[in-house]
Write a structure and sequence with these properties.
Elements (H helix, E strand, L loop, with lengths): L1 H28 L15 E4 L2 E4 L4 E7 L2 E6 L5 H11 L5 E3 L4 E4 L5 H38 L4 H34 L2
Antiparallel strand pairs: 1-2, 3-4, 4-6, 5-6
Helix pairs in contact: 1-3, 1-4, 3-4
């Protein structure tokens, strides 16, 4: 029975830690690395008849080549609103509206913009590490609470050890993700 409480806490904490990693990966997908990537529009919100809606829910986004993206809205009346949202998002694109769709030419990133993206990626990585550490702390607190309610000390210590190892593993994974993304951003 006692070991079940420990396993429950460990499972819950591992889940929270892995969610932080998944969130980081999803966030970094939206960072433009010099080639056409439709994921950059996931956080661009358009006012769709009074409802804030991400562009991928309003249109199909295709990449005919590495330097071009075409946004084809399902409702042609939304073209001006999508164009306006892209300009307001300040993601470094100038949309070209031809009445049927929006063409985006992906300009090469400047050295300054690349360094800024790397800095932002590192900040996101640090936020993910903070989430992982907070999950560990919450798990350790839960184990100590169970200890006060009669959970044996050795089971609590084993649980803390497992949580620490998982924290180190997650931090290593976050570092690997960041190194890969930085390399991708800095490659011209």
């Amino acid at each position: 029975m006692d070991i079940d409480k420990q396993k429950e806490v460990i499972t819950s904490v591992k889940e929270k830690m892995h969610k932080a990693i998944v969130f980081l990966e999803e966030e970094l997908k939206t960072y433009r690395a010099g080639k056409a990537n439709p994921a950059v529009f996931h956080n661009v919100i358009v006012d769709y008849y009074g409802t804030p809606t991400p562009i991928p829910q309003l249109a199909s986004i295709t990449t005919p080549d590495a330097k071009t993206m075409i946004i084809q809205p399902w409702d042609k009346k939304m073209i001006p609103a999508i164009e306006k949202a892209i300009m307001a998002a300040n993601i470094g694109f100038t949309p070209q509206n031809n009445g049927e769709n929006i063409k985006i030419n992906v300009p090469p990133l400047t050295e300054e913009r690349r360094k800024d993206l790397v800095k932002r990626a590192r900040t996101e990585g640090e936020n993910a590490k903070i989430s992982v550490r907070n999950a560990r702390r919450d798990g350790v607190e839960q184990l100590k609470k169970y200890q006060k309610d009669g959970l044996p000390e050795d089971i609590v210590k084993d649980g803390e050890s497992v949580l620490q190892k998982e924290t180190e593993s997650c931090n290593k994974k976050i570092d690997e993700i960041l190194v890969t993304k930085e390399r991708e951003i800095m490659t011209v």
